[in-house]
Write a structure and sequence with these properties.
alpha/beta, 7-stranded parallel sheet, 3-stranded antiparallel sheet, 10 helices
């Protein structure tokens, strides 16, 4: 395994586990303590991680998202159950927006068996999955292609969305909390997400709890711009209460 592949493994492992000890990384990667410490130092210089006593954890400030193919492997059971629950919120005849993401892909798999729905998405994986479902109306936004996330972003995608009326939108994110709202490390995603928030009647954030407490450089919106949040039971109880006290409808899914 090359040094770049090794550091990618560490970063991916932290997305799933939040913290990890140096001893475990030495065992998993079969390299020396010195090599792991050097990798951690490089990741720390890039702003991705923070060193802690005997180990490392993700930085709250998210500098880069994992590519779609890697995100799909993380917290899969959580995402599947969140997607199944979210799909139950959709009513027959609605126009549904599915934001690009691996959790919204899980929603798509459930909705694929439904009838009398129109699905709008900027996600190529969702589009491809729903292609052979003739009972569904399907629209893709087009626009600038984000190859890492198999989706379209930017002004062109946002302009297409402005021509539509969306009944219910499921918004994905890599980072969110009460203080920072929804944010992203990638500026080109801002236009699409802000536009869908403007044009949708019901706006639902769907995210597993591992993304809570993180924030990216670019702000999308405060949580008050949403109607609902769908998250798993591992979101701290204290944070659940704060979200509920703010007036948001919080749906906690047992995983």
């Amino acid at each position: 395994m090359s040094p770049i592949e090794r550091r990618d493994f560490i970063y991916r492992h932290l997305h799933e586990n939040q913290t990890v000890s140096i001893a475990i990384l030495v065992e998993l990667l079969n390299v020396s303590h010195m090599t792991i410490r050097r990798d951690i130092r490089i990741l720390e210089d890039e702003g991705k991680v923070i060193s802690i006593s005997g180990g490392v954890q993700l930085s709250d400030s998210l500098r880069q998202e994992l590519p779609w193919s890697e995100k799909a492997l993380i917290n899969y059971t959580h995402k599947r159950l969140l997607g199944k629950y979210a799909a139950s919120l959709v009513k027959d005849g609605q126009v549904v927006y599915l934001d690009a993401g691996t959790t919204t892909f899980e929603i798509a798999q459930v909705l694929a068996e439904r009838f009398n729905l129109t699905i709008v998405t900027n996600d190529f994986s969702i589009t491809q999955y729903l292609m052979n479902k003739p009972q569904l109306n399907l629209f893709h936004t087009g626009g600038q292609v984000d190859k890492r996330n198999y989706s379209c972003v930017g002004n062109t995608a946002a302009m297409v969305l402005r021509t539509l009326n969306i009944d219910i939108a499921f918004i994905s994110t890599s980072s969110w909390d009460i203080k920072h709202g929804i944010s992203t490390p990638h500026e080109e995603k801002v236009f699409v997400k802000q536009t869908i928030l403007e044009i949708s009647r019901r706006k639902i954030l769907i995210s597993d709890s591992s993304k809570y407490g993180k924030y990216g450089m670019f702000n999308i919106c405060p949580l008050s711009n949403l109607n609902d949040i769908v998250c798993d039971e591992q979101l701290p109880i204290s944070e659940q209460k704060k979200l509920q006290d703010s007036g948001l409808k919080l749906h906690i899914v047992n995983v």
